[in-house]
Amino acid sequence: MSWEGPFIAVDWGTTNRRAWRIAPxxxxxxxxxxxxxxxxxxxxxxxxxxxxxxxxxxDLPMLLGGMIGSDRGWRNVxxxxxxxxxRALAEGIDWIxxxxxxxxxxxxxHPAAPEVMRGExxxxxxxxxxxxxxxxxxxxxxxxxxxxxxxxxxRIVRFATWMTGEVFALLSRHSILAPQLEGEAQxxxxxxxxxxxxxxxxxxxxxxxxxxxxxxxxxxxxAPSYASGLLIGAExxxxxxxxxxxxxxxxxxxxxxxxxxxxxxxxxGKPLPPGHIIDGEAAFREGLRAIIRxxx
Amino acid sequence: MSWEGPFIAVDWGTTNRRAWRIAPxxxxxxxxxxxxxxxxxxxxxxxxxxxxxxxxxxDLPMLLGGMIGSDRGWRNVxxxxxxxxxRALAEGIDWIxxxxxxxxxxxxxHPAAPEVMRGExxxxxxxxxxxxxxxxxxxxxxxxxxxxxxxxxxRIVRFATWMTGEVFALLSRHSILAPQLEGEAQxxxxxxxxxxxxxxxxxxxxxxxxxxxxxxxxxxxxAPSYASGLLIGAExxxxxxxxxxxxxxxxxxxxxxxxxxxxxxxxxGKPLPPGHIIDGEAAFREGLRAIIRxxx
Lengths: 296, 296
Known about the structure:
- Two copies of one chain form a homodimer.
- The N and C termini of chain A lie close together (12 Å).
- A six-stranded mixed β-sheet of chain A has the order 3-2-1-4-7-6, with helices on both faces.
- Chain A contains nine helices and 14 strands.
- In chain A, 36% of the residues lie in helices and 22% in strands.
- Chain A has 296 residues and is α/β, with parallel strands linked by helices.
- At the A-B interface, β12, α4, α6 and α7 of A face β12, α4, α6 and α7 of B.
């Protein structure tokens, strides 16, 4: 099987899926995105789904990353342990057939600090490959389960997860605060107030004020942004304390990246350097290309 | 209407309801408890429910407290503002009829720190009336929305809410950690490990390890207790920082009181003095009796 020509890259997550036909020079020739994440696929339906992607994007080699390699995905692909780089990910590919492979996630098998990731490792090796990331760096990948990743010598050496995005979603959907949390969070005064109130490690002690203010007739303006500032502020403070107060590169969704950049600038007292927000989709595609270059 | 004889006391919450026939000397003559909280009662069904309670416990005067006085209850009873005591609660009763009254909650109308409570104020005036609480004290009422309350001169002067119980319930029911969080939290080694890891204000940064440890084949023993220790530990540390490092009296469910007592002993480095866990149901009944004594 030749990986010299175009190939299909798939970022297959829990709830969403993105796929691209990529030319040898990295150009995106065609793209599609839908809500066909792994939880939307019936048992044993993954081969059919892959065939449908090929029918749409071309009968080409296909490399997949993300939760598709988890116990709820197509195959439960064993994690590559830290330290990990593009070569380790290439060696750990689980081959469905000679032209369809699933990239492994990365684990930190330390019993006192167990960690796992699936998807962010592809973004990170992509950022390294295209030199958006230096070989020694701190990286933050915002998301449902935000990852903070220490890179040394071009390898992922350790990382930690904050469930910030999931906790925010739980509060927005299921908590007594749900009516106050309708709408999107965005940088600004309310977000900054939340980041400020996250000092002292007491983010959860400020949330109920959103309900009480509403009940007492003086609701806080832009409550979603305030709550987001509380939770992201708490994460940023804790992560900087754990990983050292350096400016992380932000890799992922650019809307989340803007919130994290605002929180980081506020907590550190200085703006992030230029180029510190890296688009996660582009990094993911570059990551699969870097892994392909390491194939034997 | 005479309140000299026996009366019916009702603690009517969001999901549960408890009612007692109480003799003039405070003895409980009959009791009932069910899941008929306010969210289980159809619109305009509260009068019928009250009649059913009288059919069961006696055709007697009835005093009610808790969420029954909220915008989702029988009447939206205006809060008594801090500072508040039994007399203020008596004056704020909303009379459905001459022998059926709903006790108000208490609010802290400060725009920068708005707070509301409904139910805990009755427990606190009860604890004060029977001298389980001294007139100057810090009180913690664990629960879905835990309250920390400063009492001065026998009055509620300020308080704050932590959504610890609700966040724990959200994680247990709806999060990726739900499979790991089945079962009851209890004091012990796992709970203590969670309290220890809550130092540094980073409780949310330790939760995902429960998932990663499970995935990597070395799950943490007694994960519900560890997670509970993380969240209660974070609350206790933050509340002591805000209200001063004094031993609070714990008023409420005795199982939650035991968890909070364990966390407080660990964080403060010394056990709570004897008598610092006060049964919330008994305190609630004493509170309604104290309010009745203040009726004109």
